[in-house]
Write a structure and sequence with these properties.
The chain has 196 residues and is α+β, with helices and mostly antiparallel strands. The protein has helices at 43-48, 51-60, 141-151, 168-178, 187-191; strands at 6-12, 16-21, 30-32, 39-41, 62-63, 69-71, 80-81, 87-89, 95-97, 106-109, 118-120, 131-133. It is globular, with a radius of gyration of 16 Å.
């Protein structure tokens, strides 16, 4: 589920719709968490889909650590990729604002860790990687983890309306890390091995 202070908006012809903030969202805010309405599609279910449905699932779903494609039911499926994203994923099953977001700012994420296939990037950033693929993501993990660790302490200081959607295990792991009793989880802890 996307943060309640967001809405769907037209971004550009290159990327289509995206998700933007409707109120200030401070760095460290959990902006997305999985919820029971999201649909997990196994590899066998995906293979059995008609081609037209496969195309839509490929466009809107992400791959989880078990190789399922996860199709969000809400506007979360419209969060666009960016090579310099405003949000970051980490070793917990959620996305966090990596910067302070003002109303109208787009919430973006780096698809590199969970894109089931390959895509050509249209983010327009000067450091754009051009092609986004999980099999090219290995060298990016350290940077993703660094960005997440920079905003991690703010999780305890900012309002977290999506906190109840996190699993009890992730809530406990985050609390342990915030208290200094455990390391902050790496994205590798969530998605496992990344090639590269």
């Amino acid at each position: 589920m996307m943060h309640p202070d967001t809405r769907l908006a037209w971004i550009s012809d290159a990327v289509g719709h995206g998700v933007v903030a409707t109120r200030p969202i401070p760095a460290g805010t959990i902006v997305w968490a999985p919820d029971p309405l999201d649909r997990r599609i196994t590899a066998a279910e995906f293979t059995a889909l008609p081609d037209l449905m496969k195309t839509e699932v490929e466009h809107f779903a992400y791959a989880d650590q078990d190789g399922n494609r996860v199709l969000a039911w809400d506007r979360a499926r419209y969060v666009n990729h960016a090579c310099a994203p405003t949000c970051v994923s980490a070793g917990y099953d959620c996305n966090v604002a990596a910067v302070d977001l003002a109303p109208g700012d787009q919430l973006t994420d780096d698809y590199g860790s969970y894109l089931p296939g390959r895509m050509t990037c249209a983010c327009g950033h000067p450091a754009c990687r051009g092609v986004i693929s999980r099999d090219l993501a290995g060298p990016l993990v350290a940077g993703w983890d660094t960005r997440f660790r920079a905003v991690f302490p703010a999780i305890a200081r900012v309002p977290q309306p999506l906190w109840p959607l996190l699993t009890p295990a992730d809530q406990a792991r985050i609390a342990e890390a915030l208290a200094g009793h455990a390391p902050v989880a790496s994205i590798r802890d969530l998605i496992g091995h990344l090639p590269g």
